Amino acid sequence: MAHVECGDPAPAAAPRRRTRKRRAEADAWLRVGATLSAEVGEIADRPDLAVEVCVDGTRVGAAAAFYPDLVRIEIGAKAFGKIDPASIEAYDPYDRERYLPAWGALTHEAAHAKHSIWRTPEKVRGTAVGDAAEILEESRAEARLITARPDDARYLQACVAELVIGTFPTTLPDSPWAAAQAAGLICARADAGILPPGMVRPVEREVRRVLGRAKFAELQAIWKAAAVTGDEDADAMVELAAAWCKALGVEPDEPAPGEGEDEEGTGPGEGSGAGGEGADGADRAARPKPARGRIATAVRRSTRRIAAKAAAEGPAEPVSAKAEAKARREEVARIGARVFALDEPGSGPTGAGGPSPVTGSRIPVEAERGAAARLGRALRTAGERERIETRTTSAAPPGRLNLRAAVARDAQRAAGAIPTAEPWTATTRRHAPNPPLKVGIAVDVSGSMKAAAGPVASAAWILAHATRYAGPDNASATVAFGEAVTAITRPGKPPAAVPVFRAECVTERFCHAVDALDGVLDLTSPGAARLLVVVSDGRFVAPGEIDGARQRVAHLNGAGCAVLWLDLFGGRSIVPAGATRLGLTIPAEAAEEIGKAAVKALTSTR
Description:
Blueprint: E1 2-3, H1 20-44, E2 50-54, E3 64-67, E4 72-76, H2 100-115, H3 128-148, H4 153-165, H5 176-191, H6 201-211, H7 213-227, H8 234-248, H9 281-286, H10 294-313, H11 316-339, E5 358-362, H12 366-382, E6 387-394, E7 400-401, H13 403-414, E8 424-431, E9 437-444, H14 453-470, E10 475-481, E11 485-489, E12 498-501, H15 510-521, E13 529-535, H16 545-558, E14 562-567, E15 580-583, H17 590-603
Parallel strand pairs: 1-3, 2-4, 9-10, 9-13, 13-14, 14-15
Antiparallel strand pairs: 3-4, 5-12, 6-8, 7-8, 10-11
């Protein structure tokens, strides 16, 4: 496996004579790569990501590799075993069972594509700090991925044999660096919830034997800190890597201890595997490699058990999850249709068991009209995107001639091979379409929310008009939730008048309100900047509402929808994990703050 940093050389594949059969095989893998691009792009949430299946192996020699600058993932055809590429249907979860390690490798590289935004600084590449940072990044990227996609952990488990056994040096003595490498690749994944804890205990036991409990705990604290480090925080990752080296007594600016080298603290019986001082390179080459250490043996034993467990589980989990997600989408769509089915919002209850909180409407004041216009301009400006540049190569003009590629093409032709080098480079530029904005507002109308009723109704009216001003594809909707869920504003044509409602309900149906907004706005579907705004003290008395609120916020976060929770009670509101708390001492500030959050959601959407 490999995550190729910016500036790392990608050696060109040597020209090779291809028979007709090999060309047909290459064409079949080309089709598989196109299918994988769509599926892996969905995992990474990157429609620009391309997957290439390399018949002769990846350019860096790893089973799979991600190239950030090329926006490409390479995977060797050997990872799929002896499967006929013409039979591969990657979109089918059942089909993936035939090549679990390969799919896990692609999932791992997708984690890098989505979360390995930070780059290793040039000055630390090739040093112990750089190597330590890469070890920490392996589990960090996967941990971030399974937070939103927990079902992918199974595929990552199946890939561990390829990912760890294929890269972990089997002849490295039981040294502190080797022990730390095993801990960072295996034990860190267990703490992140990727690997079953029980199956990594052999590795943990051997690591503790070499490092000691105190040093193991120190490294564990480092990889746990890395797991919650931001995707773009390179400084924090380098600092953690430096702490890793310090804990092991390794000079951070020097190369990491190599395979088979003597190292202070070498495990019992392993120190004599290398010659003493003054031995020349020929002597070292003739000397047999040291025997496999106990750590390497434990790594192989644990990873094989993990791979067998992943294969034995079968596809039931991803298939059932897919069916469950489909049923969930259908259910919220029905709820949204029921809540927003009335001809006039607020004319009666759309939930069950209570009256509508809407008491009438009023004409918007000049300040509200001005706020809607200003916010609309801000949203429209935030949605503007820079032009996209696409660079393509070809065997013939037009474009700019690359002399090195031209020489390579001539050399291929002279060697009797089919020329594959493309010496002409062309750049095209186009404007990226602005992503639409979808905003749902859920207002608590229980008795404790009386002070917020007026300002939030005004904010809903302003936002409905502002989103419409910003673009025809934008949409917003507002519901009030108490004993019933009532549509206040709806997608489409914004209301002419500002609704007026009272807050006197004795219970709250928050989950029903969120489902209604999701059903009518598709808050959990990609392709738009999405924001849910909740105005509530979070003190729900109906059974199951608090747990349901946590689940829905987590689901929205995992789907890429931001959740903003307006706290009007000086920090005393109960806010579920994953929602951004926004404290407001003046309820009238609600419209402005919701607008800022909407702009932020729009500008951060790819």
